[in-house]
Design brief:
The complex is a heterodimer of chains A (228) and B (244). With 228 residues, chain A is an alpha+beta fold. Chain A folds into three domains: 48 residues, OB fold (Dihydrolipoamide Acetyltransferase, E2P) (Beta Barrel); 77 residues, OB fold (Dihydrolipoamide Acetyltransferase, E2P) (Beta Barrel), CATH 2.40.50; 75 residues, Ribosomal Protein S8, Chain: A, domain 1. Chain A has five helices and 16 strands. In chain A, strands 8, 9, 10, 11, 12 and 13 form a six-stranded antiparallel sheet that branches. A four-stranded mixed sheet of chain A has the order 1-6-7-3, with no helix packed on it. Chain A has a three-stranded antiparallel sheet with strand order 2-5-4, with no helix packed on it. In chain A, α3 packs antiparallel against α4 and α4 packs antiparallel against α5. Chain A is flat and about 60 Å long. With 244 residues, chain B is an alpha+beta fold. Chain B has a single domain, classed as Ribosomal Protein S5, domain 2. In chain B, α1 packs across α2. Chain B starts with 22 loop residues before the first strand and ends in an 11-residue tail after the last helix. Classes of the chains: A alpha+beta (228), B alpha+beta (244). Chains A and B meet through β1 and α2 of A and β3 and α4 of B.
């Protein structure tokens, strides 16, 4: 996007004026678009948006999240998804339609403290997020190291079409499960896990710098110019 | 005793009538809070911490359409010259309320239904004008926490000392002076979010004091902006590559 104008903004700063489409984190008052977050403002053909550099995770439908089971009732598990809302995983979506609270025990599937990869299947202003574990790679994560990063920096960790995640995975021989909520699970040999975590922390600290890919490659000792 | 304003028109601490005290703001000083800031406003030293948005406990306090904003302004026992009882005083409860009401218009609380946002202001050392200093720090801490805001909130006081309207009263001037006018604004929207007047001013004096306070708020806004920019961007240029 060569014709996109970028600059750093703080809440209340005017990002653009005139006839634009507000995309994210901007407030339109009359003809003016004000930033609502600290971040990088982009004004382009598509519209006006601010890419935030800090902030909580607000669930969106279809997001992949990594959460921890914190409680359960007769019908559902309560999952901490690193957000201001606790998520619910209904027992019926795990046991199937013939789930019976009298016969099926929820702890036979997931216990308190289990780490899950799940997808947000429903969420809006009026209700807590609803999770589902139907799909490849979803469900309980039996082993691995969890790392938390700022949720707003997850796109940077994934990289353009998954380039950053591939670079880290190939250099360290580990598997990364990245939740949109900022929780990452790293699986692999201990040395690889240590290197991966270092790389993830580097991405978080340097998320706004231009030569991030190069810095990560230097850390992981990937030969310059190697394609992930 | 030194006169509050001498023959040269200088105040007891050497400032001119329209001068602010030296101000320093730092962002992100606490690891455990979602957002934090530290402000030195003359001899005031205040830490602001923001937690949230988070689940509301007890749950019946949650509002279905917006977040609950809770503020706690507290003076440490060692913040004054004689020990202050750490229990919340009438004055602290009142300041907690006015700080909340000064910040609330700037926060987009409707974006976070059924949640709570906690703002803690801990005064480590006080020297007059601590509510304004606290509002400045809290506003920066809220931005640091990544909470959607219409604008920052900048605050500054003016008042009347020794028969003259002055900007930014310290503790001595506050106690000995004739009036104190704390003001907070949303600078980009030209809206006032806090306005108090303690004392008596003529209409002319009031206009001048209000003008002084607005000028002070605008200077504070620049300092807040610099502090946030320094924490998040250093002095670098925006990146040019696509990040997704």
């Amino acid at each position: 996007m060569p014709d996109v104008k970028r600059r750093y903004v703080i809440p209340g700063e005017v990002v653009a004026e005139g006839n634009h489409r507000p995309i994210a984190n901007v407030l339109r008052v009359g003809e003016k678009f004000y930033s609502t977050r600290v971040g990088m403002a982009e004004v382009g053909h598509e519209g006006v948006r601010v890419i935030p550099l800090s902030g909580p995770y607000i669930p969106r439908v279809d997001d992949l999240v990594v959460g921890k089971v914190v409680d359960y009732s007769a019908f559902a598990w309560e999952v901490d998804i690193n957000s201001c809302f606790f998520a619910f995983l209904p027992a019926q979506s795990v046991f199937g339609r013939d789930f019976s609270p009298a016969e099926d025990t929820l702890t036979s599937k997931f216990a308190i403290g289990d780490i899950l990869a799940a997808r947000v299947i429903a969420f809006d202003r009026t209700r807590d997020p609803l999770l589902g574990i139907a799909g490849p790679g979803l469900g309980r994560i039996p082993r691995g190291e969890t790392v938390k990063i700022t949720p707003t920096k997850v796109p940077r960790l994934i990289g353009k079409r998954g380039s950053m995640i591939r670079t880290i995975e190939m250099a360290t021989n580990c598997r990364l499960t990245i939740g949109q909520n900022g929780v990452v699970v790293v699986n692999g040999a201990p040395e690889g896990v240590v290197m991966s975590i270092k790389a993830i922390k580097l991405v978080e600290e340097e998320a706004h710098s231009a030569d991030l890919t190069q810095k990560v490659q230097t850390l992981l000792m990937v030969p310059a110019g190697a394609q992930a | 005793m030194t006169a509050l304003i001498n023959e040269q028109g200088l105040r007891h601490d050497g400032r001119r009538i329209e001068d602010l005290r030296p101000i320093k703001i730092e962002v992100g000083i606490l690891k455990n809070a979602n957002g934090s800031a530290y402000i030195e406003f003359g001899k005031n030293k205040i830490i602001a911490a923001v937690y949230g948005p988070k689940e509301v406990h007890p749950k019946h306090m949650a509002l279905p359409d917006r977040a609950v904003l809770r503020c706690r302004y507290h003076m440490s026992p060692f913040s004054t010259d004689t020990r202050k009882n750490p229990a919340p005083s009438r004055r602290e409860i009142e300041i907690s309320k006015v700080v909340r009401e000064a910040l609330e218009p700037a926060i987009m609380i409707n974006d976070y239904p059924r949640t709570a946002i906690d703002v803690f202001l801990e005064v480590l050392q006080s020297d007059g004008g601590s509510r304004c200093a606290g509002i400045n720090a809290a506003s920066v801490a809220l931005a640091d926490a990544g909470i959607n805001m219409r604008d920052l909130v900048s605050a500054c006081a003016a008042g009347k000392v020794g028969g003259q309207v002055v900007l930014d009263l310290d503790d001595t001037e506050d106690k000995e002076g004739q009036a104190d006018v704390p003001v907070a604004i949303m600078p980009n929207f030209d809206q006032v979010t806090l306005f108090q007047l303690d004392g008596i001013l003529t209409q002319e004096e009031f206009k001048k004091a209000f003008g002084f306070a607005l000028g002070g708020c605008r200077k504070l806004y620049q300092l807040q902006k610099e502090a946030l920019m320094k924490k998040y961007f250093g002095h670098g240029e925006p990146i040019v590559e696509e990040n997704e």
